[in-house]
Design the sequence.
């Protein structure tokens, strides 16, 4: 019996899954009082309509995104009603493209050079995931960002550094959080990352020419790859922002970037900050000058942008990016289901060597706890929003803390797995070098 995991079958299955959901969404929107289309999609399409009328996308209240997104969705403003679903189709296609890139990366030597069948199995975690397909076909733009992130990883692993810098600058312009990957990539692009540089730094050629350790560190750290990455990413990010500011002025900066520093979003929010943010929004006059929504960034950025990349980036870039993203989402003051896609897209690169698969009981426990904690929170949210019962304390608050605790445990396992994998990789490299010298 032939395996299901062939390129044609997996990608055809992924395409059909999204077509079915798109058609079902049209039916539910037409006949059900509960709409399939995500509220954010109406924000996107309204902004696109304003752009088509030569107005600012920020004339649409709650549009907090780059104008690029509204530009991409301009066809949704065309007269034929069928074009309204163009954005959903674009996001669904982005899912498929991201899945193809995952599949290709898993076949690279840097990812273990998986066979086609094995690579497709892990790529299916994204391609055939009903949660991923549902979120995109409801009108969430996370699929577009997913393509940028996975393309960024592919470019770095293939040593297309200038392209990687462009993709990084574009991704950070599109959504702020991918800047954390820049730190990991810089760490990954160390001078000893290629055989040629290994030869240059062999004992016979280790003469520093009288340079001090500080000078030697500077010359080593600022290698060509790192300079190229920083220059191309900064140029792309600056150019895009300068263009948008020239067109849309201060509202662009305020809504795309500055708004998120003081954002208060207490609805549909799994974060343990949820209840405190609700109090801040309900009673702003009683909130101290030490604003929680601004201080929440401190532990989030220290862990995701500093500690994790410093500890892990040099050995496993994809795994480090997963750990960073997981930490960023877990510690974020706003945490919704769409944000889970930020790290789910990186899961296929970590799972093959994870203890969650090596120890199935641990993996099943993690999955049950992750889903169960969400279900508990959603039950409390349903009672609040649909039954009108006040469940903020203890219901939502306790369930948010429980989900947070589950995420911290999972993050700890991920970091430990990547660290152990890095140690094994380093030991193998040392042994290979010793064998080569004999």
Sequence:
């Amino acid at each position: 019996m032939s395996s299901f995991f062939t390129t044609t079958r997996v990608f055809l299955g992924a395409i059909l899954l999204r077509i079915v959901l798109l058609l079902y969404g049209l039916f539910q929107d037409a006949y059900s009082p509960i709409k399939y289309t995500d509220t954010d999609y109406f924000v996107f399409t309204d902004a696109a309509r304003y752009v088509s009328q030569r107005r600012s996308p920020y004339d649409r209240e709650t549009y907090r995104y780059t104008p690029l997104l509204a530009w991409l969705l301009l066809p949704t403003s065309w007269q034929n009603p069928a074009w309204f679903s163009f954005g959903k189709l674009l996001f669904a296609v982005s899912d498929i493209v991201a899945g193809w890139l995952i599949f290709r990366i898993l076949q690279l030597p840097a990812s273990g050079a998986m066979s086609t069948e094995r690579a497709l199995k892990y790529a299916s975690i994204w391609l055939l995931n009903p949660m991923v397909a549902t979120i995109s076909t409801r009108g969430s733009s996370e699929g577009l960002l997913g393509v940028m992130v996975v393309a960024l990883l592919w470019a770095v692993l293939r040593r297309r550094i200038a392209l990687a810098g462009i993709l990084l600058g574009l991704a950070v312009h599109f959504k702020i959080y991918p800047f954390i990957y820049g730190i990991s990539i810089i760490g990954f692009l160390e001078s000893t990352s290629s055989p040629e540089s290994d030869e240059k730094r062999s004992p016979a050629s280790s003469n520093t020419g009288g340079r001090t350790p500080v000078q030697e560190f500077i010359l080593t750290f600022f290698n060509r790859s790192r300079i190229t990455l920083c220059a191309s990413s900064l140029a792309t990010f600056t150019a895009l922002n300068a263009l948008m500011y020239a067109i849309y002025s201060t509202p662009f900066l305020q809504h795309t970037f500055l708004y998120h520093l003081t954002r208060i979003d207490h609805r549909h929010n799994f974060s343990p900050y949820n209840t405190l943010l609700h109090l801040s929004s309900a009673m702003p006059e009683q909130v101290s000058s030490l604003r929680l929504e601004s201080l929440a960034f401190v532990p989030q950025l220290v862990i995701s942008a500093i500690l994790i990349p410093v500890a892990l980036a040099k050995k496993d870039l994809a795994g480090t990016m997963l750990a960073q993203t997981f930490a960023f989402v877990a510690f974020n003051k706003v945490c919704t289901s769409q944000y889970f896609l930020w790290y789910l897209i990186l899961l296929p690169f970590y799972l093959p060597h994870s203890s969650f698969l090596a120890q199935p009981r641990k993996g099943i426990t993690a999955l049950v706890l992750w889903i169960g904690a969400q279900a508990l929170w959603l039950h409390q949210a349903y009672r609040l929003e649909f039954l009108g019962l006040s469940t903020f304390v203890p219901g939502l608050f306790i369930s948010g803390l429980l989900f947070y605790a589950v995420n911290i445990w999972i993050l700890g396992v991920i970091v430990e797995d990547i660290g152990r994998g890095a140690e094994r990789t380093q030991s193998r490299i040392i042994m290979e070098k010793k064998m080569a010298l004999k």
In short: Residues 191-206 have pLDDT under 50 and may be disordered. The CA atoms of residues 105 and 154 lie 6 Å apart.
